[in-house]
From TrEMBL:
InterPro entries: DUF4916, NUDIX_hydrolase-like_dom_sf
Record GO terms (molecular function): hydrolase activity
The species this protein was found in: Microtetraspora glauca
Protein name: NUDIX hydrolase family protein
Record bears the keyword NADP: no
Alphabetically ordered keywords of this record: Hydrolase
Keyword Hydrolase in annotation: yes
Length: 178
């Protein structure tokens, strides 16, 4: 007997997604877009300006779900293009390695990361971009900050769900924080 498997990428209907979110963790990718100088040192960090479902405005990283039967690298590229535009030219390696794994919980206080909709596990990456970035989809704007500005309390308080913590981890990972 031959086992049949679905091999085309797909996602769930809104009702199926809500039901699944209530029962199991969902895999995400988070990307911290950066500009680097000729020696590879991070000079700027790109943060999106978004309006949340509750109407609040916040700064955010590039983030999104990994589809069924989608490689993590492909999900990263898809979300970077979706949020930064097709001419952002991200430099994602052939075999990307996350700088950390963030677990978002619907209950606050379990980890620094919070998502009231679900338990999500996110692989987090720092991704250099060399092209022209023009925010798309639900992003209102993209602002480039120096690493010092991005780590400042002012910018950190503008980030929701613990993404400010994730941003500081990314900055430490690339040697911009001591």
């Amino acid at each position: 007997m031959t086992e049949m498997t679905e091999t085309t990428p797909s996602w769930l209907s809104p009702e199926e997604l809500e039901s699944t979110r209530a029962r199991m963790p969902i895999l995400y990718v988070d990307a911290v877009p950066v500009r680097v100088d000729d020696t590879g040192v991070v000079t700027h960090v790109g943060l999106l300006l978004r309006i949340g479902s509750d109407g609040t405005v916040s700064r955010a990283l590039v983030s999104g779900r990994v589809l069924h039967h989608e490689r993590v690298r492909d999900a990263l590229m898809r979300h970077l293009e979706k949020d930064l535009g097709p001419t952002a030219l991200p430099r994602v390696p052939a075999s990307p390695q996350p700088f950390t794994i963030a677990e978002y919980f619907p209950t606050q206080g379990i980890t620094p990361y919070h998502d009231p909709r679900q338990h999500a596990v996110s692989l987090a990456y720092v991704v250099p971009v060399v092209g022209d970035c023009r925010p798309r989809q639900d992003a209102l704007d993209l602002v480039w900050f120096t690493p010092e500005e991005a780590a400042s309390p002012l910018v950190q308080q503008e980030m929701a769900g613990g993404q400010g913590v994730l941003l500081k981890q990314a900055l430490a990972y690339v040697g911009c924080l001591s």
